[in-house]
Amino acid sequence: MNRWNQVDPLMLYQGENVLRTLLNGGHQAFFVGGCVRDELMGQPVHDLDIATSAKPDEIIGLFERTVPTGIQHGTITVLMGKHAYEVTTFRKESEYADHRHPLSVEFVDAITEDLRRRDFTMNAIARELDGTLTDPFDGQSDIQRRILRCVGVAEERFDEDALRMMRAVRFASTFGFRPVKSLWAALLAGRGKLSYIATERVRVELEKIVLGPDPLRGLALLQRSGLLQYAKAAQLPVKEGADAESNLREPVDDKLTILVRRLLHRSPSRPEWLKMLPLLPTAPAGLRWSLLLQGLEISGEEVSGLLKNWTFPNQIADETAAIVRFDEAWGATRAELLEEQDLRRKWIHLQIEFGREIANWWLQRQAILLQGSVYGEMVQQRETERMSLAMKWHQEVSIHKLPELAVSGRDVLAISSRPGGPWLGELMKRLLLHVALGELPNERRPILEFVESVVREDGDKRSD
Ligand code: ATP
Ligand code: MG
Fold first, then answer.
1. Other Cβ atoms within 10 Å of 238 Cβ, number
2. Which are the contacts of 166, defined by CB distance < 8 A and separation ≥ 6?
3. Is residue 292 a contact partner of residue 328, using CB atoms and an 8 Å limit?
4. Which of 109, 261, 290, 409 has its CA 20 to 30 A from that of 2?
5. What angle do CA 277, 282, 284 make, to 5 degrees?
């Protein structure tokens, strides 16, 4: 079996060249980890990682373009064309500090020794150039039976590196694997140690769960394990001089814990529409995050701060918040009995306030929610009608920003014989809305005539 079916051909071609160069240099070399696992599972392979007996300086000597990405741990990135390969010297890790990183790494001679340090059996399989597999922990059989199992004793492995617990939940969720009893017991016993892991690394796993193929399974596992409440982001900051263990144990009642608490305690009563989470596209990420957070009854005002505290990139935090706030603002019109033209005004107002893109993402999200019939029958019908109108209005709006207007603030100032002030900004926004609503063409003459009439009216009012 020497065919890869799940790898981009160019990436494979050059990856095999990297392997060959190492072999020709007199070293051992294997593809290893996620790529071997994904190929065995028939899942797309994203990158090819390589393990070798060559030492870092020998790796550097063999290739033209290298980056010493993790040289102290034995990892060198080899660049080939537009692809990058992480080449790591066989190693074992001894003694871990703070449940998160090895105190020292020691290079070893054999691939089986290297595989022993890896987290799960399915991630501990190596593959040679000719397709031969080295699989000392029966990873293949676990993959076949869809079982998640640690290499070695689960308790020890989670104690060494507490992030592995989050990875366990992630893999169980994204692959639909069942954790073996001993793994789950070790996770329940060791979950408190997640507090040693940097928020950013926990967040990365959380993202892979929520943006993965079965987010609800991952969320259910998080809920059942209670793991997330021990995340750093849900803890009090460690007080100077205080005993770190006791300080970190109890979740506190501040904004950071909102997501966690609701995940743990509220999801059983989550609205129907949370079930639509897996049907939403994964890009932009805000589509899924907005639905999840709203499903946990987190308001638009809270969203951005909460996600930023969890170290999400600003863009994701802001886009997610905008989708939630858009939904809240548009949703508020449900309770009012508005004529169609007033509804249209409201929509276009919002589309200008939030921008075309956010409105479009909201429409995408709404279309999927409607497919799932998540509303009661009557609301479903009304929402479907409102949705068709909104889609039409979304298309109609031809202008979203002041610079797109045919006149500038300076033009308006010039014909109004008033000193500049806040009124100017207000008037410009009004012009934008008029044009967007189709009440004024986006042309200089008619817009300036409109400005003149407004200025005249204002002048009359002031002289009254
Ligand atoms: P993916 O890239 O799809 O998220 P992956 O398994 O490739 O999954 P990486 O983080 O890229 O995950 O790690 C590559 C390999 O390194 C893993 O397959 C595993 O063998 C090993 N590994 C990664 N993180 C750990 C860890 N915390 N403890 C032990 N081994 C790990
Ligand atoms: Mg990987």
1. 14
2. 194, 197, 201, 202, 205, 206, 227
3. no
4. 109
5. 115
How does pLDDT run across 78-121, given as a tens digit for each residue?
999 999 999 999 999 988 889 998 888 999 999 999 999 999 99
Report CA(260)–ligand 1 centroid distance (Å): 25
Cβ atoms within 10 Å of 2's Cβ, excluding its own: 9
Spatial distance between the Cα atoms of 244 and 228, rounded to a whole number of angstroms: 18
Task: Give the whole-angstrom CA distance, residue 413 versus residue 132.
Answer: 77
Q: Kindly state the tokens that stand for 112.
A: 């089986």
Q: What confidence score (pLDDT) does residue 263 get?
A: 63
Ligand 1 pocket, residues with Cβ under 6 angstroms: 33-34, 49, 118-119, 123-124, 161, 163-164
- For residue 308, what are the contacts with CB-CB under 8 A and spacing of at least 6? 314, 317
Q: Which amino acid residue places its CA nearest to atom 7 of ligand 1?
A: 34
pTM of the model: 0.90
Question: Are 197 and 166 in contact, with CB atoms under 8 Å apart?
Answer: yes
Nearest CA to ligand 1 atom 3: 34
Q: Cα–Cα distance between 271 and 269 in angstroms, integer?
A: 6
Q: Which atom of ligand 1 is nearest to the CA of 35?
A: 7
Residue whose entry in the numeric block shows the structure tokens 């928020």: 199
The burial of 457, by beta-carbon neighbours within 10 Å (0-12 exposed, 13-18 middle, 19 or more buried), is given as exposed
Q: Of the candidates 175, 173, 114, which has an alpha carbon nearest to the alpha carbon of residue 144?
A: 175
SS3 label, residue 301: helix
Strands 83-89 and 91-97: unpaired
The residues, any chain, with a CB within 8 Å of residue 215's CB and separated by 6 or more, are 173, 209, 277, 278, 288, 292
Q: In what order do the strands lie in the sheet with 126-127?
A: 66-70, 75-80, 83-89, 49-52, 29-32, 126-127, 133-134
210-246, pLDDT tens digit by residue?
999 999 999 989 988 989 989 988 775 545 554 545 4
- Cα 308 to chain centroid distance, Å, stands at 12
CA quadruple 271, 273, 278, 283: dihedral positive or negative? negative
Hey, whose CA ends up nearest to atom 6 of ligand 1?
Answer: 34
- The secondary structure element, H or E, covering residue 127 is strand 126-127
Q: HSE-up of 194 (CA within 13 Å, CB side)?
A: 32
